Amino acid sequence: MKEKSKPTKISEVARGISRTDSYRDILTSVFAVVLAFTIGAIIIFAMGNFLWKLMVHYSE
Question: What does the pLDDT look like over 10-60, one tens digit per residue?
Fold first, then answer.
């Protein structure tokens, strides 16, 4: 399945990786980036929520 809406940089990277399993490498790299971003966002949200509870607790 080819997506035409992708920017040209991804297609250039795909051409560079095309010697190996290009689709598998791209999918794993994209999945790793998305997973890391999601975990980072969850950790930041949890820390912010924890700090907010501490601030509210000590301000009373």
Answer: 666 666 655 566 678 888 999 999 999 999 999 999 999 999 999 888 887
Tokens (6 digits) for 36 = 């890391």
Residue 2 resides in a domain: no
- Residue 60 in tokens: 């009373």
- The answer to whether residue 18 sits within a structural domain is yes
Distances (CA, A) of 41 to 14, 38, 49: 28, 5, 12
Q: What b/e readout covers 1-36, taking b as 16+ CB neighbours within 10 angstroms?
A: eeeeeeeeeeeeeeeeeeeeeeeeeeeeeeeeeeee
What is the domain range of residue 28? 8-59
User: What is the number of structural domains in the chain?
Assistant: 1
Q: 48 lies in a domain?
A: yes
